[in-house]
Sequence to fold (277 residues):
Amino acid sequence: MRKTVLLAGILAASFSGMAWSADLQVRTAPMPAIMAYNWSGFYVGLNAGYTWSQNRTRYNYALDGAADAGDIAEFNAAGLVPLSFGGARGGFAGGAQLGYNYQFGSLLFGLEGDLQYLDSKRSASQVFKFADGVDDLSIVTAARSRLDWLGTVRTRVGLTFDRALIYATGGLAIGRAKDGTSMSSIGISNGVAYTGLWNGGKTGTRVGWALGGGVEYAITQSLSLKAEYLYYDLGTTRYAIAGGSSDPAEGFLGGVAKARLNGSLARVGLNWKFGAY
Fold:
């Protein structure tokens, strides 16, 4: 009888443990699935960085009607006025951007527009002094170039790695530029007091292209940080240089300047994406 009671107790405890274990299994909650980051959607942002422009101005000079190609070559070789000015100048850049991304698998396609303020100014000058028994002249040539703002409309194509993005970008570039040249001369020519002044310039909107790339990382569901490089080329513009001097037989008529404007832009920015889950 005692053996029967003991066996019944053992069986009851065994079934009770099995029921408790099954109950624990039923009550254990599954781990929530981690969703991959989605880059699709509209966004706006701010950026700041550094720009350096590559400006070059070349000159074709004109002499009076009696001058031939040999006379012009001799004039150019004399170096009274420069044949070109060039150089790089850097400064602060800052602005805003807006755009839209569409993610398809790990691929991203997007369109972005931005507008930048640029502290991009360049000036160059040459002073030429000439003196002999009859003439004593100082000729100063100064050139200036400035890009006030730059806007771009670009496509973006990239690869996503969850919250990380690497992309290439390119498209249209538009900027407002101001270019100008002045030439002044003062002294004695042929034993007589002499002054001369020639100048010219052009201000306006110039259109070109931009190309670059960057990386971006989503810090939160809505906020992302990016670093980007752009090369821009706004092409070449031409303007006339005209003027005169106190010499009624002046043979220098001025000329035509051709100014090319291109440069680079390196910047970091923050984007805010709308509609983040």
Remarks:
- Residues 2-27 form the longest helix (26 residues).
- Confidence is low (pLDDT under 50) at residues 1-24.
- Residues 1-30 form one domain.
- The beta strands are 41-63, 84-104, 107-131, 136-161, 164-189, 192-218, 223-245, 252-273.
